[in-house]
Amino acid sequence: MSNNSPAARRIAKTILNGFDAYFADFQNITLKAKVCFETADWPAGHIANKERIELYKQKILQVLNLVQAVTSRDICELNIWREAKLTYTNLLINHKNYEIAETFFNSIFCTQFEHQHIHDSYIFVKVSHPLDDKPLKNYSIYSHYNGSNELKIIIENILKDYEFSIPWENRQRDIDNICTTLRAGPLAKLSDEQALRVDMLESIFYRNKAAYLVGRIMFDDVVMPLIFPCLNNESGGIYIDTIIYENDSASIIFSFTRSYFMVDAPVPSHFVRFLSTIMPQKDLSELYNSIGFTKHGKTEFYRHILKHMKASKDKFILAPGIKGMVMCVFTLPSYPFVFKVIKDTFSNPKTVTEKIVRDKYRFVSRSDRVGRMADTQEYANFIFYRNRFSKKLLNELKKLAPSKLIINNKWIIIRHLYVERRMEPLNLYLNHSDEQQTIEAVEEYGNAIKQLAAANIFPGDMLLKNFGVTRHGRVVFYDYDELCPLTECNFRKIPKATLPEQELSDSPWYRVAENDVFPEEFRLFFSGNPTARNAFEKQHNDLYDYRYWQHLQEHIRNGRVEDAFPYRRKWRFQRSSLDFCNHDESPYE
Fold first, then answer.
1. The model's pTM
2. Which of 48, 132, 331, 548 is the least buried, fewest Cβ under 10 Å from its Cβ?
């Protein structure tokens, strides 16, 4: 049978039509972000983000049903998928989003075959051809501002070109703030501002309660980010809250610990290429994830680790730190990620089930992570070379999660795992940190707890080993099997003992319900580290008070959405007291 058999053509066309329909719906949901920002309808923005995440699976199931209906051939036959892939490849030759369309094809196949038969003969394990590396034309996705004008005129023109449906609170003040900051910072030694070139992406990046104008500034062979976070004062005005021009600060804005941006990106690869110029340390998978194309981000990650394994020789080992009761965690020392496998049987006193654990991770993927929870990618039938596993790791997996393993002489296939950015566990970090580093890490730990709580997330198990320290020094939560919405907790004060022997008892002398939480017990987390404990009590003593938590619950139930932005409070521009209206100060980020 030829590669272009009628059945293969129908399957390929059906999948491509399904992808185009999915992409259009994805874009239409994304476009809601603008009106949510302008009307300060923050709950609607969160709903749209979840709706967009759920869309992919809905479309995959819908298209797979159509594939089954367009041919009388048995779609369980692998040969027809070999033919369909060849036909699909030809259909994508001039498709502007071919790389994401290939991932969509992969998802259809993997759903049909339950993530088995993963081979480049049937799906796009390798991309069909490299992304176009020709320079982007100015008119494609960004506007160009260059050196015939001084800095102030450039900034004025930029803000004029971004169209919101509500006015600027005080545009001239914002322009002055931006120019003053740039001239005191990266442009301090620039003798001729007409040598500047600025490129700004035309689409606005929306997330939570902020809109980001994203671009780059170039001079003297230097390329730097140029990002303007815009806020709505909730009284009919928009203002620039600060300016971001450092690579690390831009990286934090696009961090794996934050919700995905809602940005109108008709050709995502073009946006990824532009973003790579201001964040060269980020790989393609991170950038695709950051703008909402998480399934293709998974594809890019898989290709990236396959490439890395071919270029490296070290072996996968058990991850450093205290072993978890739910997960077996391993890593490759030369690769900055960890791989988490759910154990077949959980250690005492854990009472959760595997389904509950999976549901918790799913909950995180759809939550506002406020920069304090690691994004986690879920994989089925992940293939590794057997000779890359240390003997100790393989024995541990065989012992703790044998049902998740398929092993032969060449491969180890793990039926289900999560992949997460590797961080140093906070308890290990505090073992070697000096006094100042300890104080800063403990401050970050408390901030993480508070900001998660403000987003209606209670970590549950707040032991230090469940938090990690990023390369930027931020503290991030990454163990999700005990988390729950804050509003489901019952925060209580420990009742006073009525008898001396009650205080000496190993068990509580009072009744404890399943969702009861006693914040006074948080002091135990720093036993053995007086420096950390003293720092925490000085900075975050309010977390020991049950009334603090009850107050937060009341705010959440009343519909209040707290501010949490990916930059430090001290960087925020000063505004006149007349400008503040009803907008609250954001917490430290």
1. 0.90
2. 132
